Records
---
Amino acid sequence: MLFTIAVSAVFSALLPAQEAEYGVSMPVTATFGAMDTQRLQLANPAASAWSPNFRLMFYPTLRLGKHWFAYAAVQVRRLPFFYYDALLSERGVETDLVQGYVGYTLRSGGATMVFKAGQLTSAFGSFPLRYDDAQNPLMDQPLSYITEVPLRGDQLLCGTADLLNQYYGSVSATCGGAVGRGAGLTPVSLYGLPGAQAEVSVHRFDARAQLTTSSPAYPDGWHISRQYLQWTAGGGFTIQQGFRVGGSAFRGPYLDSSVAPWLPTGTTVRSFPATGMGLDGQWARGRLSATGELQRFRFDSPNFVVSPGITSGYLELKGRITPRLFVAGREGYLKTGSVLDTQSISAPHFGATLQAAEIGAGWWLEPRVLLKVSYERMAIAGVPGNKFNVLGLQLVASFRQLQWGWK
């Protein structure tokens, strides 16, 4: 790790920035941090509440002329790194391919079009592309992108009573499919899905359309044989400089083929899709900026008349105190909706409402070296205490000039 940082620093000093039609580059973002939270003691009360961590993001890019390019984003992190990692039992070092695709760019008049194919982050929402620690002014992520809700794709729920027996991060439905408790679905994954995408930008308007082989709520890798084609689309309009509004939606099967034998006669997993709809906005003026999202999800299930649904949203504010110092805050929530099963049993909600409030500050020690600190208060309805709160510290260094180009 230290060798990588040292090599990047050397290339940053020796290679001037250049625009070349052909070339290879390797931007790197290195983050060293620590967190202090009782979340680390949930699985083992004897464990320390303090944990150091690190994260490396590699962005290898290949330019092949004016149109063709290849891009990847590879993550190496020590668990727990993210605040939500502290809720899980996994420990050690983990490597993930966040993105990896081949692209083609075409410009005509005032329009720019980009086509991509490979491992792509979901086109739903506006947060998935902000996975770099230098781009995120805080340390956590909005709840809809990290929360394991009380639903699974490889198990069928019998009805409302069965659903009310599930918990965040621990699900064991009993009407078919996999056996035993396990992690629930995350409404929108921050990791890549196999698929293809087209983007267009014309003056103030932008749009994107994506076809993937699995749901953003239940992503499958290339090695999984279960493949169900589905769509995601989004777009936005820049009202004026610094002010943009947009929206996105996705729809497609989320159930695993293992539950097919227990589905009603004449139906398949395609008969019960997951649907997501969202609004997003970004605003910036002077030293202040804001971004936010409001999202609604529904997971159709065969034993329900009113299927499980989730509403989530957040508002993030950032203020620049000096050219090097900023403060930021994010307030978010996740709320489950009402359900009604085929036996006429209903419930006003099927899970506790979650609320997360994070405040933090950042100081640019150098143009590409950022020191961040944040504190998050997590409230779960009906659960007293502050054991889910987190205090975190990060030192983020970015190396952008590791490149070699030729005409």
---
Amino acid sequence: MIAKKSTYAEVICSSAIHVDHVGAFYNSFHLTNYDWNQKSKKPEEPSKDEKDFDDRTLRHTKVLDGFQVSHESADLSNNTILKRQIASAEATVFARNLSCTRGTEACPGYMEDRVRELCDKHKELVKEVRVIKGQQLLDERMGLFHAVGRAAVSEPRLVMVHYQGDPESDQTLALVGKGITFDTGGLNLKGTGYMEDMYNDKNGACAVIGALHGVLATKPKINIVFSMCFAENSIDSACYKPNDIITSRKGLTIEIGNTDAEGRLVLADGMTYVQDHFKPHTLIDLATLTGAVRIALGMETAGLFSNDDELAGHLLASSKATFEPLWRLPITDEHRELMMTPYADMNNKGKTIYGGSSQAAAFLEKFIEKDVKWAHLDIAGPAMTKSAKGPVSADGNGFGTHILLDFIWKTQK
């Protein structure tokens, strides 16, 4: 890390460093020098990143105003790897800034506005921005999604951005992110020591937005639907209750075993809508879904679940190519049975505390159409960390952005 007061850095890499490694250096260097805070002392001159985004959020983000990297014996001006690493770093910063913005400010409406602002800068690349919110969710039979956010002041909403990088292809990739902007736990209220960090419960959606940022910067030849499921799991007289039975868009009835198992509810309806309307061949969802995955894998590794070995292999390869580790976990018949209830098609809470992340994945699996390749990334551990471990920053750190972008770049035509 460079000195805190430094605002500009220029690095010349020696010829001993392979030219393809320069991009990785740039990416890590840039992200290691990231620090988010909202201290009252403002910088004298806003950085480029601040000018490009909402000043209320970014004015206290520590990033380099200028950073250039060159190579002693190679021209980097047309180096694709470097360009992608720069785009990935900037996309991750974008995701981190959203992740760290606190719950009262970063409500569902705020998050929609940030997505729209990003798309407005690249209108020629965006085929459609579609938003379904409030009563419209019920009109579209998304009862689970609506129930989670109906007690909040800012209405729950499904925000979708259709990027069409290959108009000649009928193949579409769907990325779906859990965006619970603050999670009280609902009537199954979280206790002190557990609730405070729940502005980070939107980090799956933030990673999807980060991937959108990187795609708009690099224009890959691929069609992608970026879908963000935004809701605040709040409490008032309108909130949903334990043991309610709610019908999903897919038609499955869900008994609410715990109002704090809300992320899988918004994802279930969100994924169903995306599959119904955009017919993706592959769907990847990201979510800070379970504390159980932290117990299984620790705080630096995310859990990967998939119904397709080839897709899982590609994501594991992208994980190894970045500093965002994944480990594949199973969904077995035991996990599926544990989500059953005699009173509805499923319960949103398993029958035991054991294998909680696999039980949650088994719940999501029920909402995937049989011909769709699917992967679920439970990022609850690494997406929110207490201390920096460069290039990973403290707090919400945009985990998943690098994996998604690397996967997209490698699978495009």
---
Amino acid sequence: MAGGKIYLREKGGLVPMTEARYDAEDILQRLLAEYPDLLAGDQMRPSEPRRWLLITREAGIPDADGGQPRWSLDHLFIDQDAVPTLVEVKRSSDTRLRREVVGQMLDYAANVVAYWPGVQLRQLFEERPRPDGVTPEDEVLQLLGATAFTDPEAESSHVVDEFWERAAGNLAARKLRLLFVADVIPPELQRIVEFLNENLVRVEVLAVEVKQYVGEGRQTLVPRVIGRTAAAEDVKQTSGGAMRVVRTWTEPEFLEAVTTTGGPEAERLARAGLAWSRRHGFEVTFGRGKYGPLYFQARDAASASVRIACVNTQGYTMVQYDALVKIPPFDRVEERVEMNARLNKIAGVQIPERYAVSATWPSIHLRALAPEAAQRQFFDVLDWVAARLSGKP
């Protein structure tokens, strides 16, 4: 690679650093995973630099609902506004960096929003290996920093839950960021990136060039963001990464938002949930995020409220094994597996048993619970759960 030099000043003079190729694509991939700051979030939004959290490397993407992974995304990151960020890495010597990588990335994005349930982001993140003593919750709170506690009474677990709810909402709303990363971004790719970024409203498309300079046993890495134009900024003024939304929902406001965002099918599901809660005398509560959610709660043997499931304003329903695992009898894995089996008897619902075993947060797509018969079956399962929680036979 013919390239210029930069100079490192030391006491003895200047150390020339020469631009050099990476010996292998995996070297750049590993650098990004270890040092996410190389994605140059400060250049993407100087007034509010992007901070990054690695969700996983080699994320599998299916091409059908419930299908096996067809593609593997190099990196999946998320920023402090819970915007999922898809990253594909190529070396400048790879001819696919010219045009083919663009079609590849659009394939990834289209199938991620179509076939990943909202909970997939959190599931992939929490399954990622991490050093001993470091918890997934710690990493999220570190990403959010002081902004995590705009509500002084917020508990850390609630802050983390809200973050992943916002991530699921962004995914459902097709609010993504697509990043092409290479040691050199060719002009052909730069033109395509600028065109896409200036014409896509909810999706930010950028390239990041990470040049490597070496000399006298030293290595310097210089990232540069490409595609951030004035035209693109104008397009995204109203849709770019918004500040964290914290709000107190009222029932009328929530139902109005459900109708606007999720449509009449989502509204019917939300109203059915409210009716179920009132019929049993259970507390009606809402989350404090942009999309709610509305929690479906029951009472345990000590009359304490327990979250069973929830539905957000987009009509996505989440089963809260994470809350149930703390309360008898659902602290036993066989009870959660039984609940999972009952839910899977609903036509269109196929929750893998591993979610019940690991006590995470599987989601159910609105189309599965839109029919009235499916809603009746769903709330029948919640009746069974409520009875088990209360200790009734």
